[in-house]
Amino acid sequence: MTHPRAQSTNSLEPPFVLIRALTKSYPIHRQWREILRRPFAEQWTPALEGVDLAVERGEFFGLLGPNGAGKTTLFKVLSTLITPDSGQAQVDGLDVVRDASQVRRILSPVIPDERSLLWRLSARDNLNLFAGLYGYRGNGRATRVGELLDIVGLAEAGNKMVGQFSSGMKQRLLIARALLPEPRLLLLDEPTRSLDPVSAERFRRFLRDEIGGRQGCTILLATHNAEEALDLCTRVAVLDRGRVRAVGTPEALALRVAEQRFRIYTRAPDAPAFGELLQRGLAQSLSMTAAADGQWSVVEVEIPKGNEGCEAVLAYLARHGVAVARLERVRPTLAQVIEHVVAQHPPGTPAAAEAPRS
Amino acid sequence: MRTILAFLRANWLTATSYRIDLVISLISLAAAAVPLYFVSGALQPLMAESIRTEGGQYFGFALVGIVTYSFLGVAVNSIPTGLGKSISSGTIEAFLVAPASLPSILAAFASYDLIWTTMRAVVFLGVGAVLGARFAPAGLPAALFILALTVLAYVPIGLIAAAMVMAFRTTGPLPKAVFAASALLGGVYYPTTVIPSWIELVSRVVPLTYGLRAIRRTLLEGWSLGQVGGDVLTLVGISAVLFAVAIPLFLKALGTARRRGTLAHP
């Protein structure tokens, strides 16, 4: 599946979001003993290490990665809430440090913290407060607030106190708040984490069709949910320990892994020859997944040389009397892709280049 | 201004959602002037001479002192309290990513307290007038102007306390020290002239000393702004010095919080 807007990434227009060699570290919280011993020796832990990214106008871009990968820090830097240590981040040509106030007029982050709502106020009054901060007045404000309550499905609960809302409703209100200024760049940090599957699917459809589609908003989505990214994003970046490990369309990234992952149908999954494949470097990992039927078992194998390596693997197995009925390429899930990318970059390895676009 | 109005509305709605608290607060305020009236009556013979140039009536003197002192609470506490609440509730990030200016957000933190304190002051002085406090209405505009200057002179203390909240998540002893010094040495309950001479010297660096004296002379004696010009100029001077210290400190704390990524850490 190739998303139609994936094509836009080839345009000659400068990237809407441009991040170059962005670095950010946080001070480590020290114990009293350490402070007394060395009062001025602060220790810092890196959250972003030389991040390079380019996101095109109108693109739906996913940031994937495990906890602590640096996704939220990257969003906070873009939102002008955190100052980077070095490097550069630009939104529509504006620097997030130098032109912070102008950047804030372009983008809107969904602050995912429910506590950031005023719980003693109704949903409508919460939006009214922020509509005031964004410069809406009178009828225009009432119309915009009503419109957004309708969009996120809270029209009926609009006058209810937020403290009485479910987590899902609060999440939707946070999203409505972020949409107030009609942003050109929307930063979404795990937007569906508190939504039930039906609401999550409805919200994804809304994002894709309304915000990304009709309003042409550029969207950066940080998520743990790989299938969500696959469903929505034209391109994704895999972040791990503050570094971009891979960038590309979900299909291109999947292909990278798929090139090496194969499924072998055999009657002798326990044959020593499989273990020897690992020792000889013909394969990198082996796992017996499930019996395909009463006669054949399936062994999943990662062959570093891809198609070329298959021939050698098959020949080796045949030489050692292992009957192979079929060998086929495995189509990995995006979650497996992330796992694979992260596993390929142990601490200390440099960032990866962009994957070819499909 | 839009930011301030939006905050005022939200704070009013929040306050009115605690209905019992609101009603009790108003009733207790109106009642608070009554015991002051009786205590003032008892102290009048003792204080009459020393407050001769500040109204001469101890009840009016004390009312003005207490009301002015209550405004210091707004100047010193509102911004750090608003900021602290906003940090612990997580709203600070949502406010800071909006295109509203930082000064307007800080002013908005204090706006509701300022209006609420003004309403309380009106009720308090109104009840005082009914009980016999004597005011000089002609001096009201000048008194209001001086009150604004006095509050402004204490805002830098609030900014420094806000910087402390941002850096250390506590205001430390600063607001309490300022309140204590102002109450004891600023002439809230007695004129600074009755303070022993060596401490009286300290009272000369307390902005409230000048603010209160000028407010009383205008509001209780009907003096013109020109007649209290010395006190007004001193207030302006102190404000300028304090702002020159407080603004860089606050900006430094904000910059450090942004750099260390601690802006929204409760």
Your description of this structure?
The complex is a heterodimer of chains A (358) and B (266). Chain A has two domains: 4-248, Rossmann fold (3-Layer(aba) Sandwich); 259-329, Alpha-Beta Plaits, CATH 3.30.70. In chain A, 35% of the residues lie in helices and 25% in strands. Chain A has helices at residues 32-37, 71-78, 100-106, 123-133, 138-151, 167-179, 197-214, 226-232, 250-258, 272-279, 307-319, 334-343, and strands spanning 17-27, 44-55, 60-64, 86-91, 94-95, 107-110, 185-189, 218-223, 235-240, 243-248, 261-266, 285-291, 297-302, 324-329. Chain B has 266 residues and is an all-alpha fold. Chain B is built from ten helices and no strands. Chain B has helices at residues 2-17, 19-47, 58-89, 91-96, 102-131, 140-168, 174-185, 197-203, 207-219, 229-260. Chain B is globular, with a radius of gyration of 20 Å. The relative contact order of chain B is 0.14. At the A-B interface, strand 1, helix 3 and helix 4 of A face helix 1, helix 4 and helix 10 of B.
